[in-house]
Every structure is written in structure tokens, then in C-alpha cells.
Model the fold of this input.
Amino acid sequence: MNLVCLDLEGVLVPEIWIAVAEKTGRPELRRTTRDEPDYDKLMRYRLELLDKHGITLPHIQEVIGSLRPLEGALEFMTWLRARTQVIILSDTFEQFAAPLMKQLGWPTLLCHELIVAPTGRITGYQLRMADQKRRAVEALRGLNYHIVAAGDSHNDLSMLLAANHGILFRPTDAFAAANPTLPVTRDHAALRKEIEKVLK
Amino acid sequence: MNLVCLDLEGVLVPEIWIAVAEKTGRPELRRTTRDEPDYDKLMRYRLELLDKHGITLPHIQEVIGSLRPLEGALEFMTWLRARTQVIILSDTFEQFAAPLMKQLGWPTLLCHELIVAPTGRITGYQLRMADQKRRAVEALRGLNYHIVAAGDSHNDLSMLLAANHGILFRPTDAFAAANPTLPVTRDHAALRKEIEKVLK
Done:
């Protein structure tokens, strides 16, 4: 039986931190896992910046609420969820993802959690577990699922390699070149085609 | 982080086989896991009956397409999916569940698969794995989720006991009496209240 695991940012919705950087006028927040593969290092850097500039959770949620899924993503998800089971694996946080998940019709999302003070100040974050995308794929394979996974960057790699079939979606040229065994797709129509090809 | 696992039939939608029994005028198909805890035995009995009476998958899908979620189930799911992550664990089959999952907005469903001949005759079934509800709860706990599970009958028991919190929904009096540690709820408002109480 099939189950598709999808990365969220860059595949279904925009990169949240880049949007926050743009709307808050803080270009230093543009760094993503594409730039800094060490996720914990990246997060500590981000939270320090937020603190320094007094940017609270309500500010960020306002920005996220103004984002829309990527063009074609909603239609893609509508097709995929009628075709097979889907779980989104993301290194974002429940508090950030909610307004976007609502727009996508609440697919199941496994991710992390922010620690937030009553003032709205983000005091820290709780990674549910290290390398959670890969671990989720392994757990689902352990439940006898045939896993197809799609993602765009460094933090998806172990998930893509742990799946029965991994697919790259809009990777950088360097990332695609470094992982020549993974097929590359550039839009949701191509991703759909590639998924269809490997579903059992 | 929280994740809620729900049984499908009897909690969100009617018992599919009972509906099939009624609409096909075959009362022998009314047997469910409430009557026969051995699921494999029950399924072999059902498939033999279908064969004997020439009832094919398209017939059954027509019946299932005419069913609606239980009263209050859609509102309950809308609330729950905005509140936390949800996965449905059912011993039904993807081919049966689809028309009802569509009405519920395609929540993630882990279940089993029928083997169907090109004629529409159901030739067999493939259990993805034995005791899959419990195994799914254990796998999700292994991913550091705090699991709340709700179900109504025999095939839910190992899932309810493996969860951090198990909740009975409309159990028979005998089943409730046999499992006195599990709180009993009788409608979706009570189930919602019980879930809220134990979410972290």
C-alpha cells in the first residue's frame, strides 16, 4: 500500500522565513536550510535575530496568514489525497504552519513546536526528534507502507533516501548534481507524473 | 506534541458492512467485529457470502456512496484537525473508505486493501499487517508523539491500551464493563471534551 511523504516549504507553500524576512525588512532572516544545513544552528540564529528586533509570534503569524500555497499546490494536493494517503513532513513548527495547513484543507503534518512566552516572545523551540523526516519514513515503512517522498533541500535528503522512491522538487542545481540518483521535477504536473510512475 | 488516532466506523461513519447488509437485503452480512473478534474469520465469512450472492465491488461502492458521516462527525473532525494532528486507523479497505473519506475532507487513513478481479469480484483482501492499529500507535509514540486514541470495539482495544490515553466511543455495555480503565463517551461533544482534557 502506498503513502506519499511531502516536504512543506518549497513544495506546497513558500519558504516561511524568507517571507518573514521580506515583510519585516530583516534580510538576515532569509537564511534557510539551503544555506545552513545545520538546523539547530540556523534556528538559534533566527531566534536571536527575532529577539534583537522585538519580533514576536503574533507578528510572524500575521505574515504567515498573508501567504498563499504555491501556484498549483492546492490542485496537486486535491488530486494526491484522492489518489493515495499523504503525510507532510516538515521542519517547521505547528504554530507557524496552521494558517497554511488550513488553506490546504488540513492534511496531516508531522513537524516541531515553538516555545512561546505569554507575551508572544518566542523563547525557544522543541525539535520533536532529530532527523524526524527519515525516522517517520522508516516508521511508516515498518507499517508495511510503500513510501514515495518528495522534497527540495538538505533537510529532505535522509527522508528521500529512506523512502522506496525519492523525488526532488525544484532543487538547486548543486543539490540535484550532488544526488544524481533522485529524479528532478520542476512543477507540480511533473511531480504528479513522477509519483504516478512509482505508485504500486 | 499531540496526535489523535481515531477509529472510523462507529466513530465517524456508520458500520459499512451493516449498511451493505441492509441495502442488499442480506442480513447475514450484519456480523461485525463486535460479534466476531477474529477479523480474518469474519472477512472470509463476508467474502464467501458476497461471492455466493454475486455482490461485486461496484455494488458495494454504490451503497457506500449513499452513506453519510455520523451526525456531528464532520463538525467534530473540523474542530479536531484545526486543534491538533489526526490519523484515522481502521480495519476497513481503501476501496470501501474513499467515498466517505472524501466527505470528511480526506483525513489521513491507515487501513487495508481489497484484491479485486477486473470483473469487480472481490477475490480476497490484504491485511497490511496484523494488529495494525496498535502497531501504528507504537510507531507514532516512537516518533515522540503523545497519542490520544478513540474507538468503539474489540479491534480498537490494543490501540486504546497502547495510546497515552484511550477513550471509548459508544461501546456496548459489556465492552465498557470489560475495560473499566477507559473513559466512555456517548456523543461527539463528550468525545471532544474528553480529548481536550488529555491533550498536552
About this structure: The domain at 17-65 of chain A is CATH 3.90.1470.10 (thrh gene product, domain 2). The mean pLDDT of chain A is 94. The first strand of chain A starts at residue 2 and ends at 6.
